[in-house]
Amino acid sequence: MSLPGNLASAAGIRLGMAGAALGAAGRLAVRGGRAWMGDAAGRGARIAALLGATDTQRQAFALLRAVAPNLALSRRLVAAYDNTGTVIVTRHADVTEVLERESDFAVVYEPKMRAITAGENFFLGMQDSAAYTRDVAAMRLAMRREDVPRLVLPFVAQRAEAIVAGSGGRLDMPQDLTLPVLTGLLGQYFGTPGPSSAEMAAWTTRMFWYLFVDLRGEEAVTRPALAAAEACRGYLDGVIAARRAAPAGTDQVLDRCLALQAAGVPGMDDLGIRNNLIGLLIGLVPTLSKACVKALDGLLDRPVALAAAQAAARADDDAALAALLWEALRFDPVNPFIYRRAVRETVIARGTLRARRVPEGTMVLAANLSAMHDPIALDRPQDFRAGRGAEAYMLWGYGMHTCFGAHINQAVIPQMLKPLLRREGLRRAGPVDGAGTPFPVHFPLAF
Ligand code: HEM
Fold first, then answer.
1. Per-residue DSSP letter, 387
2. Nearest CA to 388 among 150, 92, 149, 94?
3. Residue 49 — pLDDT band, cuts 50, 70, 90?
4. What PANTHER family does the database record attribute to this sequence (predicted)?
5. Are 300 and 400 found together in one domain?
6. pLDDT tens digits, residue range 267-284?
7. How many CB atoms lie within 10 A of CB 443?
8. 124 Cβ inside 6 Å of ligand 1
9. Contact (CB, 8 A) for 291 and 409
10. Which helix (H) or strand (E) holds 156?
């Protein structure tokens, strides 16, 4: 495009952002007013529910992207990890900048990772280091990309279809479908089924909540998570010792870890295997269950997209189905932001009008939800438009710590939902209910 063309396009996008910010401000004022009015006793809960709703967050980010793209607050919004204040980063270019600058903006999870393992860190809690490379490299050998089509996908497809076929046209999605299939995958693919499906689901969910979601560091979240960690460690220690005593030589992750141990691969002693497994199990179960529920919930809100997903599922067109699911998750991802702490004083978006000085110790919330709706990076992000390029999506992180399970996610979510979407008359039989947790516990469906 010519310079005048570029100027006109840049001005048009920014005018659009200003208009969207005005609309968002109005909507936020109305919703905030409604939450404030009514009985004072329920006010706190109403405001918390409003702030937790993804649609509210999208409106707030539309406002921030236009008027305060890198908003600095002296308040510590994340109390669960040491920090000196908060910067909320909302533009796509700045979110990616923060997540790329790993040496300036570090992961903070180490103390909680050590509490979970009763000792060592797990690689998501590490900065770039020899230990990080050692553990990721070893686990990539134990969990290979070619496993996804060969081992993971067929298991999920078969189990999900069997559950839906046997449900009699009604099921509670997390309890009957996603959690049993995912804990089943832990048994089938990892070799760690747990004492029961229910216990594996509860342990991994409690630990995930404590590590990543509980920003306030609540005792009521910490205590059950540490009890779950202790139980899970004990279980894994037993399984590892038993399998080492009687190797099965299968393609299961556990057997592969023990083969690496036998070959003398560093970091693969029993404790190393256990700590790596615990991190991966936590990463898999609650996240994938929540993503499946959110993706389907998003489709059920959009009849045209739902019909397209049903057609794709019936035609076995996995690519078309996946494109619709990623677009649904773009509006309602599992996590709206990723947090990092500034290792030293630095500047975000240097050389621009929105440059922001970030003092050492600041918690930086890199809002991936906002980045995926930034009109400077995406064409008409407010439109539901399946088939955007992969770079439009930041559903499982970005940069060095991008999700280790990304290829598993891309295979599992469509396979889990396909049997439901193939059925006639799929509809909600109740709302998504977290039962007081940040994860879907109930989502009744009928078809
Ligand atoms: C829809 C499901 C999932 C979502 C939404 C999700 C989300 C994420 C996000 C946002 C990150 C980056 C965290 C950060 O940078 O602070 C991440 C990293 C990670 N995830 Fe996932 N995840 C999912 C599934 C999985 C699965 C299935 C596994 C295990 C097989 C897994 C294991 C991990 C690990 C080990 C990391 C750390 C990677 C590293 O430090 O290099 N996740 N995930």
1. T
2. 92
3. confident
4. CYTOCHROME P450 YJIB-RELATED, P450, PUTATIVE (EUROFUNG)-RELATED
5. yes
6. 999 999 999 999 999 999
7. 27
8. yes
9. yes
10. helix 153-165
Q: What are the pLDDT digits (tens) for 131-188?
A: 999 999 999 999 999 999 999 999 999 999 999 999 999 999 999 999 999 999 999 9
Q: Which alpha helices (DSSP H) does 246-334 contain, by range?
A: 253-262, 270-300, 303-314, 318-331
In a shared domain, residues 60 and 74:
no
**Domain range spanning residue 36?**
1-67
Reading phi first (left if > 0) and then psi (alpha if -120 to 50, else beta), residue 121 is in: beta
CA of 281 to the centre of ligand 1 (A): 10
Token couple for 109: 């999870």
What's 69's DSSP letter? T
Rg, the chain, Cα only: 22
Q: Which residues contact 248 (CB under 8 A, 6 or more apart)?
A: 191, 255
Distance from residue 396's CA to the centre of ligand 1 (Å): 6
| pLDDT at position 1 over 80 | no
| Class of residue 5 by CB neighbours under 10 A (exposed 0-12, middle 13-18, buried 19+) | exposed
Which residue, by CA, sits nearest to atom 35 of ligand 1? Answer: 404
165/186 same-domain check: yes
State which of 67, 83, 117 marks the end of a domain. 67
Confidence of residue 100 (pLDDT cuts 50, 70, 90): very high
How many structural domains comprise the chain?
2
Quick check: helix, strand or coil at residue 352? coil
| Residue of the CA atom closest to atom 30 of ligand 1 | 405
Which tokens is 447 given? 């078809």
Ligand 1 pocket, residue 408 CB under 6 Å: yes
Both 53 and 72 in one domain: the answer is: no
